[in-house]
Amino acid sequence: MDQPTGPQTEFSLVQLLPNMLTIVAVCAGLTAIRFGVQGDYMPAVLLIIAAGILDGIDGRIARLLGSSSKMGAELDSLADFLNFGVAPPLILYFWALRDFRGLGWICVLVFAVCCVIRLARFNVSSKSEEAQRDCAYFEGIPSPAGALLVMLPMYLSFAFADRPVLPQIVICLHMILVGLLLISRLPTWSFKTTRISRENVKFFLVGVAFVGAALLTFAWVTLIALCLGYVAMVIWAWIDRERPSSR
C-alpha cells in the first residue's frame, strides 16, 4: 500500500548547497558596500565580481542536483537585486559621485530602479510559456552583466592609475545608459543555451584557463576587455537577431 507523501522535512547538505552559495553571494555584496563606505574600492569591486560568479553557478548546481525550489528562486532574485542593483551604483557613488550633490544620487536611484524592473520582468517572463519559444535570447542585458558594465569607469581608473578619473557627468551618463539597457528590448545571448562541440571542448577549456589567469594577473585590464567584448557580443546578437526579419 502506497504511503502518503507530504512536504519534505529533511534536506541533505548537498541539496542546500545552491542556497548556501546564494547566501555567500549576499554576504559578498553587503561586504562590498561596507568596503565602499570605508573607501576600499578595489576589494569592493572584486567582491561584486565574486558575487557574479556565485550567481552564475548556484542555479546550475540546483538544476544538476534536482534541488530547485520556489524559495531558492526568490532568494536568488533578491540576492541579484542587492548584488547587482544596489551594491555597484552605491560603490560608484562613494567612489566618485558624493561631491556631485543630488545628481549623482539620482543616477544611483535610476540604475537601482531599472535593475529591479528588469528582474521583475524576467521573473514574470520565465514563468510564461512564451519565454520558452526563444530562450536563446534575453530581453535587455542581464543584471550581472549590467553590474559588470556599470563599474567600467572604476576598472579604467584602477588600470591606468596615472590618468585622471573620468568626469562625474560622464560617470552619471554611463550609469543611466547601462540602467536603460537593463530594461531595454535589446536581444542578448543567453549562455544557458550555448553548446560546445566535442572537438572544440579542449579549446574552450584552454580559453577559460587563459581568462582566469588573466583575471588573477591583470584584473582591471582583463575586466575592461571583458566589458568591451560583451558590448561587441550584444551588438552582434542584435544584428544576428534582426537578420532573418530583413529577408
TrEMBL record:
UniProt keyword annotation of Nucleotide-binding present: no
Gene Ontology terms, MF aspect: CDP-diacylglycerol-serine O-phosphatidyltransferase activity
PANTHER family listed in its UniProt record: CDP-DIACYLGLYCEROL--GLYCEROL-3-PHOSPHATE 3-PHOSPHATIDYLTRANSFERASE-RELATED, CDP-DIACYLGLYCEROL--SERINE O-PHOSPHATIDYLTRANSFERASE
Subcellular location: Endomembrane system
Main location: membrane
Protein name according to UniProt: CDP-diacylglycerol--serine O-phosphatidyltransferase
PROSITE patterns per record: CDP_ALCOHOL_P_TRANSF (PS00379)
Pfam families: CDP-OH_P_transf
Catalytic activity: a CDP-1,2-diacyl-sn-glycerol + L-serine = a 1,2-diacyl-sn-glycero-3-phospho-L-serine + CMP + H(+)
Coiled coil, from the record: none
Native source species: Paracoccus denitrificans (strain Pd 1222)
GO cellular component term of the entry, any: membrane
UniProt lineage: Bacteria, Pseudomonadati, Pseudomonadota, Alphaproteobacteria, Rhodobacterales
